[in-house]
């Protein structure tokens, strides 16, 4: 008893060494008052939870520090496991964690979304488990739920999950841990999705940050050709921190990471909060920055070997990719703005987009679904609650839409401008921002990150069902 209390105190003391991070307006700030920029890596060595093996975390944290990373992103954790060792290993190396709260069987579905108590319970358990770590930077309510415009009716359910998890956070007296979303980067969803998730004027219902999973910068390219110029146009004065929650095209390779110079350079640094590079471990998708040993036959099973790759041990840099990234990050030291000098009046408000046939389908500032609602035939209808009592029917989206609201009138010009900038995107770009031409990227992306089939039909997406990465 006594010694475990002592241990708890010790690890608590260790993690106090790192300042906490809060979202204020369109930026992240440390509790010391400095702006925080993410230099991150996606970290999911094992399917269930990579934050349980303290020794492994120490080895990885130490090399990540050399790489210049200050953040990891973890897609799946087991809320019942003990994360103290790993979280302090990362904190000791000055590294924050961003954690996805959804699980393999609770994520919001793109085509027939619902948001109910089972999901809420699963998400809130992750929050309960991680809230006390000072190096918890943020929590995601979802990753790439919506991948094409006709799935946009799932967006209000994303908002519902953010609203409920933020309310839960506040009701428990947890610190203001940022709660946000990580989006597929598809031009037909831009800027509608990012605007929708931050529109409506009620911060309690909006996400605290927006992450974009973008693979559209494939070296050699540049700020304009890659399409980053469009991302920037749409991120100007964004109301909450916006950053790349996954990035790093590996075609043709080696990876040069020249996008980091733009993200942290004069074009973008005032509006973006950094990037999480996909990914730490080398595996079949070949995005790895390090490996734990040579590739083996996929049929081989053994301790720490899954899917043809060793998933624990001493991390060895993949060359030249690791060094290339490390060299970039070493030269990138943005200071941004001090919290005391930051004027949140400079941020924009976003209109709730109006729907268009076969485009964005959520018409204006619709009522965010309540817990227990499901989407049927393009409107929300309450499903019977767990106790069997039918809740009252919700108004349909159309009835509820604030069409022609003053916000839309006020923001119209900006939105029109942003959407018109799309066709100017250079056609030479192999970008995911051009979904029709950019099939290759979309496919590759599905293969790497999706554990489920999208309704974008292609073999890679379907195969990804078997994959644990999203
Ligand atoms: C959504 O769009 C995809 C791709 O264009 C199409 O295959 C699918 O049938 C559409 N789904 C619905 C419900 O319209
Ligand atoms: C903002 O949203 C919260 C959560 O849905 C709600 O409780 C509150 O009444 C809303 N505030 C306003 C001013 O509408
Ligand atoms: C939530 O929805 C899922 C899928 O329909 C269902 O299995 C689960 O029982 C629901 N949870 C509650 C509390 O109703
Ligand atoms: C910035 C940097 O280090 N770039 C290097 C990345 O790798 C290629 C291939 O080895 C080198 O040519 C670059 O100089």
UniProtKB/TrEMBL annotation:
Domain of life, per lineage: Eukaryota
Gene Ontology BP terms: fungal-type cell wall (1->3)-beta-D-glucan biosynthetic process; fungal-type cell wall organization
Biased composition, class Low complexity, residue ranges: 418-435
Keyword Glycoprotein: yes
SUPFAM superfamilies in UniProt: (Trans)glycosidases
Protein EC: 2.4.1.-
Residues annotated as signal peptide: 1-17
GO molecular function: 1,3-beta-glucanosyltransferase activity
GO cellular component, one term: side of membrane
Name this protein carries in UniProt: 1,3-beta-glucanosyltransferase
Annotated source species: Daldinia eschscholtzii
């Amino acid at each position: 008893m006594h010694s475990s209390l002592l241990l708890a105190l010790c690890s608590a003391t260790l993690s106090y060494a790192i300042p906490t991070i809060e979202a204020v307006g369109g930026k992240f700030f440390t509790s010391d008052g400095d702006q925080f920029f993410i230099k991150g890596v996606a970290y999911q060595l094992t399917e269930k939870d990579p934050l349980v093996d303290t020794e492994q975390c120490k080895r990885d944290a130490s090399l990540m520090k050399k790489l210049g990373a200050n953040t990891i992103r973890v897609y799946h954790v087991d809320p019942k496991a003990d994360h103290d060792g790993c979280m302090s290993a990362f904190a000791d190396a000055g590294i924050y964690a961003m954690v996805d709260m959804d699980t393999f069987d609770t994520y919001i579905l793109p085509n027939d979304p619902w948001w109910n108590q089972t999901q809420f319970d699963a998400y809130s358990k992750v929050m309960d488990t991680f809230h006390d770590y000072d190096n918890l930077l943020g929590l995601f309510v979802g990753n790439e739920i919506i991948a094409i415009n006709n799935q946009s009716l799932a967006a209000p359910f994303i908002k519902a999950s953010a609203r409920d998890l933020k309310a839960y956070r506040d009701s428990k007296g947890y610190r203001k841990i940022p709660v946000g979303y990580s989006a597929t980067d598809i031009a037909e969803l831009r800027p509608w999705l990012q605007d929708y998730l931050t529109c409506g004027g009620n911060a309690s219902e909006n996400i605290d940050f927006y992450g974009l999973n973008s693979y559209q910068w494939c070296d050699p390219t540049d700020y304009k050709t890659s399409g980053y110029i469009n991302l920037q146009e749409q991120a100007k004065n964004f109301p909450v921190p916006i950053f790349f929650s996954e990035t790093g095209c590996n075609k043709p390779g080696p990876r040069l990471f020249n996008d980091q110079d733009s993200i942290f350079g004069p074009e973008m640094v005032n509006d973006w909060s950094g990037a999480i590079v996909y990914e730490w471990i080398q595996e079949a998708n070949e995005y790895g920055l390090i490996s734990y040993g040579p590739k083996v036959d996929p049929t081989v099973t053994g301790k720490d070997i899954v899917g043809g790759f060793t998933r624990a041990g001493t991390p060895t840099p993949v060359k030249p990719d690791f060094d290339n990234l490390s060299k970039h990050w070493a030269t990138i030291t943005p200071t941004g703005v001090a919290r005391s000098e930051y004027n949140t009046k400079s941020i924009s408000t976003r209109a709730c987009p109006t729907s268009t046939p076969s485009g964005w389908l959520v018409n204006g500032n619709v009522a965010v679904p309540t817990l227990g609602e499901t989407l049927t035939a393009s409107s929300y209808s309450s499903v019977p609650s767990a106790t069997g009592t039918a809740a009252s029917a919700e108004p349909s989206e159309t009835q509820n839409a604030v069409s022609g609201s003053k916000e839309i009138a006020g923001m119209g010009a900006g939105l029109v401008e942003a959407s018109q900038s799309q066709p100017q995107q250079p056609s030479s770009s192999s970008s995911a921002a051009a979904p029709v031409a950019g099939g290759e990227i979309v496919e590759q992306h599905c293969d790497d990150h999706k554990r489920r089939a999208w309704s974008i039909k292609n073999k890679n997406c379907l195969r990804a069902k078997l994959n644990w990465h999203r």
